[in-house]
Design goal:
The chain has 85 residues and is mainly α. The chain has 1 helix and no strands. The longest helix is centred in the first third of the chain and has 51 residues, at 2-52. The chain starts with a helix and ends in a 33-residue tail after the last helix. The relative contact order is 0.04.
């Protein structure tokens, strides 16, 4: 009896979820489309600002958080093996 009850609950939950998704899917899709449209507009406005600047001008936005300093004698060691033909 418990097995049939579990199966019935699973089936009921499945159909309730399916019904709710049919109601909510159009709303969620519209919300996603609006969000993507607003992001597209923001990207286009950013590109228009970049295009309005003179060609060759360099703009640096933000700062690097890394402050690694190497002396002249230091370098990166790379281990390698020779391959014979």
């Amino acid at each position: 009896m418990g097995f049939l009850r579990t199966i019935a609950i699973i089936v009921i939950i499945y159909y309730v979820f399916k019904f709710l998704m049919r109601l909510l899917a159009p709303f969620l899709m519209k919300k996603m489309a609006d969000k993507m449209g607003s992001q597209f507009q923001q990207n286009q406005q950013g590109r228009q600002r970049q295009e309005s600047e003179p060609e060759g001008k360099v703009t640096v936005e933000g700062q690097s958080h890394r402050s690694t300093k190497f002396s002249d004698g230091e370098g990166e060691y790379v281990d390698y093996e020779e391959i014979k033909d």
